[in-house]
């Protein structure tokens, strides 16, 4: 594959100058350099013109942002996940000091959202490779995979551990809402499992392929593209009825995720076809909870997550505080 390199300059208008690749070197105005960085540094420091026709000088170079990664520093290994919103691979990233294990996702729009957020319960964003196809998002690699798989494989998880997963998710979602971000796809399959130094399992929110950022004065997002794939079984009734997403709908999907956490990671509305599940949701009928779900959680689900009308749902920050209190019981 042949790559073209351009030097973009903003003067009275935008000017573009071709940089000629010569094997492992780069040439412009009859000068050859071992790298593009050296080329730019030369013209900035010497104040030499970069054009043979006009006096054009490089004054203020725009460096690559910390999150813009060199494609050659990333190596993809095996596929570890896939879905409607992209494929995920395990891999490595070369840094100055180490070879870091990472997760690599073929995606584009969600990178602009992920790079704006940093929180203990949000999967860490390392950067993005922009300059070749496919565009790659590089992020923290979970050593234990998704929570839904963990729940299905380990059915004897203690209630207090499950409460910990619930608290972590609430913490991350509260942070996102404080940043005016709707995740729109909260589910146990999008929670990744990590182990802390004290050997306690924690989860972090991942997959921002459906996430949107609201303006401070906005309270909802209306989906206009009716062909967009959606996780039907986790959606709130008002989303299915009118394609509206809000902080309230994130609260509802978090409630569905709680049912998964205190169950065995079973798919919501298990046994029903998607169309039937959608009809049940529109009627305001939540998924069936597992028998081992603590009664205090059931009470919260009924009163705070699935009340009618939706405006009576609690705010995420208040639910986070409430769920944390259960950890002390």
From TrEMBL:
Domain of life: Eukaryota
Record-given protein name: Protein kinase domain-containing protein
Lineage start: Eukaryota, Metazoa, Ecdysozoa, Nematoda, Chromadorea
